[in-house]
Structure formats: C-alpha cells, structure tokens
Amino acid sequence: MSLKESRINSFILEEIFAPRYKSIRSVQEVNIRFINNSRDTVDLCWIDFQGNLVRYLKLGSHEVVKLTTFTGHCWIARFIRNGAAAQFLPGRNEVFVITTPFLHTAVVFIIQKVPTLFEAVVEHIGELLHENQYAPHRLPIPELVKARLYNKQEICSILKDVNNEEKALLFLRKFCAYFLEHLKVKQLAEIFVNGQIDLCLQAVSDLSVECSDFEINEIFLTYLRKEFVVMSFSTVYNYAKKWIDFLLQNTSGIRNHCLLLKQLICCTNLLQNKQLLLLLHEILPQIYHRLCCIKQYSMALVIAEIIFYAVALPTTYSDDYDREALWNVWNKLLLSKECVRSAHFNLCTVLVMSSLDLDCAEHIQSLENSFNDFEKNDDFSFNLRKQFLVLLEANLGVLLSRCQPTQSEKLLNILITFHLENNDLHLLMQSIFRYSGLAEICACKILQPFFRCLLWNLSLFIDENSSQQEGNIGIWIRKIVMEILSISDKSYEDELKSWNMIMSEFILAPHHMLLSDDKRFCQTMQLICGKKFSLKTLPISLRVTLFCVLISLIPYISSEIFEIAIESILSIMRLDAKLFRNLINSCKEKILKKYIKILLRSGCSNNNSKNAQILVKEFLLSNCNHDTLALKCDVILKAALQRTLVEEQYYFLKPLCDTFSEIHYETNTEENSTLRICAEEIFRHVYGLVSPLDYRNAMKMAFFELSLSMLPVVEILQKSDKTATEKEIKSIAKHVKIADELCKTLCKHPERLIEFGVISEPLSQLLRTSILWMVRRGKLERIVSWKYVRYFELYDDTTVNEIISIASVDMLKSLLYSSWHDLHASKKFTFYFALAKHQNEDKRKLLSIVLKDILEVIVDIAGTNYLIVAGFLQHILPIVTGNAYERDFISFALALLAANYESLSSDSIALRNAVSLLLDCLRFGAHSVINDQCSFYMNLFVCVGRAIQKYVNNASVVSPQLIRHLSYGLAKVAHEMVKHERSFSRVAPFIISECLEDTKYLSLALFRIFSMCDRHSIALLTTNLPLLQKTRFANLSLQFKKIKMVV
C-alpha cells in the first residue's frame, strides 16, 4: 500500500465527514454474544432510530454478554476512561450494524482501536503543538505547510483539500520521515499491532528513496525483529526478494534496505526456507560487488555479514550441505577486485572458514594485521567499529578456540577497551562465561586469557595513577598474572610452590593512594570481585590469582567497592581455607603485620566493616605457631592503644578476642607462655576499658562482652603454662568469680538493665553472652528454670534456640511440668513459640504436656498481636493432631481468622498467614471437620479471596510472586476440601457463587471446588445466578470441562 493509496483512512473520515448512524425498525431477532477483548471497561450503547446513543450496559475487560437484538440495529462501544470508540471484529468497524440474520448466536469481539501510521503522525503533531505551537517550525517540512499547523483540524483540512493534495503528500512524507526517526516505544507498540507493519515498511521504503537524510533508528529495528520472527516463510521471502531487487536497481536508500534485510534474515529460520537460502547464495555476492563499486563499503560489510550467516547456518545445524558450493559463495567475494580487506571482512572470512572446517591460519594473520582499521568512525550510528565489535563478541568462542594466545589477547583487549568506554564491561563477562561453559579445556582457552587481559589492564591503570616509586604494585600484579595464568602443564605441587613463592614477594600498596576517580579501575574491580559471576565456578588457579590481586589492592580501593572486595576475598578463602591460609603464611612476617594494621585502618574508616574484622581474624589464624600469633596480636594491641576514640579501640580489639575464643581449645600445651602473656595483656586492657561497669554506657557493655570471651582463654592458658605465677592465677580467678555474679544477675534480673535505659539490640546481645558464659561454666540447669525462662521475651531468637538445643529433653520436660501459673502469658509464650519452632521433634512434642496452658496463653496474646499467634498456630497444629484439644485449637484458629479478616486486605503478611493457617486447619484438623465448621470454612474462604482482590486493587505495586503464592495457597485449601468432599459438597455451589467476581485470582481453587458439584448443584447455579454471573459461570464450566478432557 503506497502513501497515496492509504492517505484517506477511518481516522480522517471521522474527523472530516463525521458520518451518522441510525437503527432501522425490524421484527427479525438476532442473538449476539459480545466479548470485550480490550484492556479497559466499555459502555455498550445502542443507536436508536433518531441516531441517539442509548446506554445498555457496562462490560468489563474480558467479560462476555449475550444479547437479543434485531436486524438493522446499530451498536457502538465507547471506553469509559476517555470516551473513545472501540472497534468490532472481524470488520474493525466502530459501529456494528446488523445487516443480515444469523442462523446461530453470532460472536462479536470488542477491541481497542489501532491507530494507523497517519493517525500516529497526526497525533504526534498534536502533541508537539500542545507542548509548543512553534515546535513544527523545526521540522523538515515545507514552509507553506508549517504556516497551517495550528491544530488537528488544520492538519485534516490539509489532507482534505484537493488543490493541496501534492502539498499534503509532501507534508506527510516529510513528517513521516521525521516521525519514524523519533518514534517513542509506546507509539511503536500501537503502530505494529494487527497489520500496521506493512504500511510502516512501505513508508520506510518510499521515504528512503525520497528523503536522502532519512535513517531508521535502533528502536524501530528492535520492534521490527519482533514482527519478523512471527512472519510466514512466504512473507519473509517476498520481503527479501523485494529488498534485494531494490538494492540491485537503486543507489539511494541503500542503508535502510540493507539493515532491514539483515534484520529479516537474522530473524527467520533459513534451514526451513530453502527457497530464500538459494536466493541469498545466488544474488547477495552480486549486491556486495555492486555496493563496493559505488563505494558503499559499510553497507557492503552488512551484506557480507548476511552471506556469512547464510553460509554458516547450514554447516552448523544441518548434516546435509555441500561444503564446496558454500565455499564458492564466499569465494566470489574474495576474488572480487573491489573487495576491501578490512578487519570486519577478514573476521567474516575467518568465521566462514571455521564453520566449513577449513584452515584459516593465513586469514587469522590478516585479521590481526587489520585490527586498526575498525577504529575509524565513518558512519553515523551504525559505524564499522561497532559492526566489527558486535560480530566479534557474538562469535568469540569460535575465534578464541582457533587463535594463538597472542592473537586471543589482542581480540580480548579490543573488546575490553570498547566495553570500558561504554561502561558495560559486565556484558562482556556474561558473554565470556556463556562461551566458556566452565569446562577445564574451555577455561584454558577462554576464561584464563580473558582474566589475564583484564588484570593486565588493571595493573596499567594503577601505574597511570601512581608515581614511579609506588608503581611496584602494578609490576607485582603483572608478575602474578604471568606466573599463575601462563598456560603450562605443571602439577598441583609445582603450582603450589610457585604460588607460595609469589606470596613471599608480596608488595604492600600505600594506604593513601585511592583510584576511585578512575571509572575504568572501578569497573574492573567490581568485575573481578565476582559481582556478575560465581567465584566458586572458577578454576583454582584463577581463584588464587584473584585472591593475590584483591588483597594487594585493598589499600587502593575506595569505600564504594571496599565491602564487595572484602566479601570476595572471604568467599575465595572459604572455598579452600587450608590452601589460602598456607599462602598467607608465605608472606614475610614484617609485611604481614603492616598489612593487618592497614586492613584494620581501612575497615575502621569504611563504616567499621565487619568483614574486614573477619579477614583480619583469618590472617591471625593462618599460622598455628603460638609465638607468631602472639607477635601479630601484639601489633594489633599496640595499634589499638594508639587510637584516641574508644569506638576505634573496640574495632581493633574485637578480631583479637574472637581469634582467641576460637583457638583456646587447641592451646592445651606447655609451649604457650608468650601467648598467655599476650592474652593477659589484652584482657587487662579490655577490663580497664570496662571498669567501672556502667549499664547505661553501650561501649562499656560491648567491652564487657569481650572480657567474657577472653576470660576462659586466659584461664586455660594459665592452667597449661607452668610459668604462670600464683598472683596472676588468683587475679584471673577473682575476675571469673565477678563474671559469674554479673552474668547471673543479668540473666535473672534483666529488667534492671531496662530501667538503666539499655535498648533492645544491645540487651539481647549482652544477655546472649551472659547465657553462653553460664553454659560454659556448667550452670545450664539453673538457666532452664522459670526464674530465667520468664525473661526469654527479652532474648533474641538465636539465644533462645541455643538454650533449647543445649538443654536435654528431661530438663525441658521438668521445666514444662513445673509451669508457673502466676506468670504473665507473654512470659510463657516466647518459650512455647521457640520450642514449637525447634528442629528436634522429640523436644517439640513435649508441648503436648501443656496444651491447655498454651491455649489459655494464646487466647490472651491474640487480643494484642494476632499475627504472631497465627504464626504460632501453624507450628502447634501438627502437634495437637489427634489430641483431645485438637478441636479446640482448630476452632480458635478459625475464630481468630474470622475476627481479623477485615485487616487482611491491607497487609500482605497477614494475607500469607491467613492462607497458610486456613490450609493447616484443614490439613491437621481432619477429625474436626463437621457440618457447622464447613460453613465457617466456606465464609473464610470467600473472605480471604475477596481480601486478595481488594489488596491487588488498592496496592500501588503488587509482587507477581505474592499473587502466585496466594493463588496456589487457596488452590491447596480447595484441594484439602475435596478430600472431605462428603462434608463440603453441599456448600461448594455457594462458594462458587460468591467467588465468581474474583475468578482472576481464584481460578485454580474454583476448578477444585467445581469438581465437588453434582448435576443438581450446577442446575441450581445456572438457574439462580444473575445475568452477568451466569456468563462467568458458563466460562468457568467450559474451562473445567476442557481441563477434565485433557486430564
């Protein structure tokens, strides 16, 4: 369809001629079913005998209505949102006129009106005028037309004016060119719906010839790909033939047609379209020669890519191909005198020969020699450089498997530089991992060369930003890369020796040098920290390399990526802890001690990084020699003493104390005098910061925890060290006695801490430390008593769970039998809830002893916090199954849901709990499903379904995962109802009738419930439901029958 043939369309007719419709009187009845297939609600209106609109009914999205009307009557549908007219299928008319009677019920679809290209153009002009009435003067259209662009009516009058027909067509062509170059995504989506692609492609073809400066953009091409994929083979062939003929006959508009042809070929299956494949093999070499002759070299390379695709595809995915014939197709290009041996062409040649299993060593050398050609940018948007890089990255796996190491590195360096400039280096990483497949042989060919190039570039960035005196770190990184990632056949033992040798030459980077301003450095660092891949998938040699590089660069790293780098180092070390501790031991002691201090200073200045403390602890634990450990600890202690702020001292001392708490069980030896002295110094310093103890001072309480962790260590070290004096032993014994009294008081009377103003989080941590101290001191039986348990509500979940895990079944049983009846419900509830959630089944079953007390407790708690009670019931119901209290708990759970159903629609967590609790009541309360409770279940099911619908309607953002979870949860509830079909079959019709409005989210559940309906129930629903609900029920019934037939 040409522009001239399509210039008069329904939009222009409506604006200019405004036709009127009237219904004609008739007595011949017609049955019609209207189906609203649009996304919005419409008003279905009848046009009466005077031409007036008579509103008949409102029809929601995807709703159906069956009407009886008469021949000659007219109907129209208008969207409630904006009053715009909808269209009727199959004729795409805005007014549905019944001209002939139908033998059966006719089906008419109501759809959204699809704008044509001209409508979109006119609408776009209107938007420009709305924003600025002078905006059209910037458009590439004639001045005579610009003068009349004031509003849509003027635009339409230009199109209507016969005398100005040529001007109107010129205006449309010029403006369409501008419009297609500046299309928005929303406009494209509307234009390409239902058949507008033909008009668009014709417009592009015409405009390419008539407007020399018209160029289609990438957004337009992206949408075209989606259309090309679904085209039939015959349509694809016709388009390809048409554009190939154009390229053979024309000299203008070549660029757009080459790009269209490339997109079309890339989106079709050439193996099944043999006719098109033969056409490409025969004609495309001629087009390539012609484009070279007229010096359209960039477009000639596009054609070369298409030929490569047409040659490589059969060799890759088909066993039935003629290698010699396919090579002759490409050889026509090589033999051409006009052929330009650019990097892009040489790359295509290498790929073609690789696909045909031919020797391409000579052409790979030619490719290496022509690498500099692609850097010239002699095209506007689709330049040679970008074409080359896109093709190179798409076929990187093939190339790296055939290239020599030096050639591979050149290719990779080109890609790394390009992606660093575009700030999307992570995309290249994804491609590398996709091609490598993470197999060992692929790692050598692809992964290791890539990381070698990446780290080499990183070291150069460091040299650029460092002075000559500080440039040694870059040299050391390059040595790591060459030593570890060089391809060799070393055994693991030899590799281990070389890794230890490298770490022995570890160079410390200066702390004051930061490279945060270098975007290339930051991109590379984020990538090697494993941000876009899993570190455990890398070969061991790569992990060792990254570990060495990352620990050397910690002082260089800015706060933005400091935490990421530390996490990556720890992740690498956890994968093979023994190996990396040995590597750390290979470092010189002097360098290592200095590095630990720098690491602590960096962590302290980066928001008191906890991961940095963990890494320091790993460095301390790397050597089992007590003297060496004591020297490292002494360095940290001296560094802590130099800090002026108490918070900074705590940050330095925390990893020290944690280290001692982990190794003190292994220190039962007589060779620990140095370590004992060091531990005593640390304890004295920590205790000095604690005294005098002030519960209101958070830092003093934190140091008190450290002192509790150090006390057992010092005590054990003194027992195993004969050089310890009696005075030192008595001093530590005194401190232990004081700690016993303090911890006992803290655990027995934590309310005193609350009176002093200690907030919840520090209080929980302090209580946990005190509890663990008492457990370590053998006073577990005292803790597992109601004097202590009544304060469990102040403990965190971890502490309570640890106490239950340590306590024996007999201890817990004795505790439950001695339940204090005068305790407040909240005091008992925390312990009951923790025991119900515990993993040990024998300990969970102990709750059956006190079910009566539990029921009284949760009744009290439910009035203040029903959500936590609902969560508790989900854990306790499996325990009460088959018990005398089963029916009481089930009844209480249902009553709890019924009393709080109004709050469900505003809280997603409450919705989740409600669905889960309803399911558990049916699953574990099988003996309590009686007739009265069936009605209760029915009402709750309906209420929860409506709450889901209301929540979706009211929430600004709804998670699809949440909706899926709730829908499947209700389907499981319905499935449990089916298990009790004898009880629930009588209420099934009522559930369906109440939930028909919410079928969108309850369809799976309703199918289950529908299966319980007999013929009488279905007849009852069919007869008594309102008109709209009958239609919905008919659709549900039809879908159920289809599913049943499939099953």
From TrEMBL:
InterPro entries: VHL_beta_dom (IPR024053), VHL_beta_dom_sf (IPR037140), VHL_sf (IPR036208), VHL_tumour_suppress_b/a_dom (IPR022772). Residues 22-79 form the von Hippel-Lindau disease tumour suppressor beta domain. Pfam families: VHL. CDD domains: pVHL (cd05468). Belongs to the VHL family. This is von Hippel-Lindau disease tumour suppressor beta domain-containing protein. It comes from Onchocerca flexuosa.
